[in-house]
Amino acid sequence: MADSVQFLISGLTIGSIYAIVALGFVTIYSVTKVINLAQGEFVMLGGMIMFSLLKLGIPYLIAFLTTIAMVIMIGWLLERTIVRKAKGADALSLIILTIGAAIFIRGIASMIWGKDSVKVASFASNEPVSVMGATITPQSIWVMVFMLVIVAGLFLLIEKTMLGKAFRACSVNPLAARLMAVSPKKMSSFSFALSAGLGALAGLVIAPIIFPAYDMGVMLGIKGFSATILGGLGSAPGAVLGGLLLGVIESLGAGFISSGMKDAIAFGFVLMLLLIRPYGLLGEKNVGKGGL
Amino acid sequence: MKRKGIQQMSWKGLAAFTVLILILPFLLSTSLMITKATFAGIYTIVAVGLGLLMGFAGQISLGQAAFYGVGAYSTAILTATFGISPWLSLLIAITAPALIAYILGHTMARLHGYYLAMATLAFGIVIHVLLVEWKGFTKGASGFYGIPKLELFGFTFTQGISYYYLVWAFALLVIILSLNIIHSRIGRALRSIHDSEVASSSMGVDTGRYKMQVFIISAMFAGIAGWLFAHMSYSISPGSFGLDGSILFLTMVVLGGSTSVWGAVFGALLITAISSFVQALGSKISFITSDFEHVLYGLILMLVVIFLPQGLFPAIAAKLKPFLEFTGRKKKSGSITAVKGDQRA
Amino acid sequence: MPDLLEVKNVTKKFGGVVANQGVSFSFESEKVIGLIGPNGAGKSTLFNMVSAIFPPTEGEIWFAGKRIDRLPAFKVSPLGIARTFQNLQVFKRMTVLENVMVGLHTSTSSGILSAAFKLPKAKKEEETIYQQAWEEIEFVGLEDVAAVEAGNLPLGKLRLLELARALATRPKLLLLDEIAAGLNHQETAGMSDLIFKVRDRGVSIFVVEHDMDLVMRVSDRIIVLDQGEKIAEGTSKEVQNDPRVIEAYLGNDEEKEEGTV
Lengths: 292, 345, 261
Known about the structure:
The structure holds three protein chains of three kinds. By secondary structure, chain A is mainly alpha-helical. Chain A has one domain (2-289): ABC transporter involved in vitamin B12 uptake, BtuC (Orthogonal Bundle), CATH 1.10.3470. Helices cover 73% and strands 2% of the residues of chain A. By secondary structure, chain B is mostly helical. Chain B has one domain (8-338): ABC transporter involved in vitamin B12 uptake, BtuC. Chain C has one domain: P-loop containing nucleotide triphosphate hydrolases (Rossmann fold). In chain C, helix 5 (120-140) crosses helix 6. Chain C is globular. The chains are: A mainly alpha, B mainly alpha, C alpha/beta.
């Protein structure tokens, strides 16, 4: 019992990260129809930049905010310099483009930071708390709190603000949006910046738990992508659900079957689900065909 | 029989390429270079299959290295552990990836490119994990040793020139088969899907079925390549069959261009050359590491998609056109084709 | 003998928008039937359902005694329905001849393996495909551009190409979706001659057309849609004098004028 609770909690922790990464995918996809496979690299940059800033002796909170700002800049630049240039390319080419960006960023990161894992300090105390026989580190709680705050924040941003309205307009009908003086180009930049910010946040909250390294973005990116597809491409609630589900399955698989097999179990599950329900958990049947 | 108006394959182009392959070993000075050229042949086989999938079925596979791995490990296990003849295990090395592709293909039959991308990505990771973890069969991360050499009528194919010719014989076969497919009713059906799926299906083309068939063929080609790789090397390890491998194959096809079979061939040759060059450079300059190679591939992918969406080969073929007029290369499509009024050989 | 095409009480909704409402009609073989109506009357939607691009929300469509409204598009072609597209769906990167050869896809059957290994059957079929494609090219008069990539052709030739490609499937029923749109006077005249030639081959033709002269000239019978519903059916003369048809066209014009303010 205590084991199960323990696995469940660590599953929800990592699942929260997948959910945040998946929300990043959805953010970009809903406006631009691009699947940004460099999403995981934003997470990696969040962790690694934080590490460097802390090493320079910059106070935690300032380092935290600077990291987010820097990753947002990188996301924005990625859209301006690369993605926008390829506008009009088909879905296949856009996927390839973002894979290229991912490898490029990862390669540069390994040149800057080397291949070793680094350590980033936790937000606050490191004293584990005991709940129902399972121990939880405060950082795990932070991760889940952040996920909830992000979900709530995104909801408010998209549903309640003018910016959000413009955002939704672009995702439903870019042409009509342009007629209403909303620039799909600006929204495209904005979606990359927002998504990079989400990635950076994910990287920042998970860094104290997983010892970041240059290649951490690969798996996190792919898991986030899986969560997005699992939930139904383009659906934000689906992305959160998919992320949490994937985290829990992976954690239970690692705990009860074999920790080496956890990725195979998680992706095996994704494959099974895609075969049974090709359009994801909350996806509409026609989602894959370009509808939202 | 005069056949005006069909884009035909040029036997002259194929013949010229074959001659180039035949004489290449005599131009290469070291055994290392022969080995690289042999690898280029193995990669060509995978890339041609992936090129068919991307250029003609409009689908992307991010797990092609896993099919390659399934081919390599199935023959390694069957021959080394169970003592089966490598020629018999070739059949398994082809059918096992085909079967997996058939199952995976169901995720794409009705849906968009993203889903096959996801499915193949997930599949690639599952296979990699299994190769590492299923130690009873695969010997785990340290690798599988003791794979026998290929023998035919008492002749042993060892690493070197004989294996080079063996690999390229397979590669040429794969190229010819692919060219035949492209220039058949199936090939036309596939090309038509790319231009207008709705018109294609209203002409009675079962688009899902042909996408599936091409996916299966691409997996079979990867299986053959894996088989060749396993029997070339004494040992294999999971590292060759992970995500990096899949992306390497993807880079080859994107760089060369997927609208023609020759694009994939060209891409495979070019990437192998670039990789060899960077490695050679790396032994002299400390700054150039394997990371540098990755940065380079990332750059290639981005730049090609932005500036040369059709890949390098069509661009080069167009530039060379004045010199190659006699082979009947066609400018736009970049495939080796015969134009107006050309007679069939 | 069942009717060639029978549309029974067909309704199509896209979300909340009703594109067709309870449309019924039928016709027998070897006729030219026109389908007209103001913009937004639901003509294209109806055509797309008959060619099985998408299924109706309610109702049934029967063709030559078979129910076709739940079939995928590629299964309808072998039964004998072919179509052209208003917004031109040619295969741009293939030659004119190859475009037409795709039309012969279902009358041949060699698979991917016999293609890869060039088995005798595949070679023989290729010969047949080639011959028959040429016949259609000659029928519409595109011999001189047969080897040109379709993407390089002007609109007039593309319309002919779509016709040849559809004919290559050996249809019993040919759906022409605004085949004369964008054509000049001379080309339109040529097209109407071609339509008669196609009818003389024993092919029934179902025409959606904006060019009233053309549709009145070629059609044996005309069906009129307005706002998704069938409002009239008859010979060109009957339809022209039908008060509901006149009102639909005039009324629609008024709306249009208001809309442009």
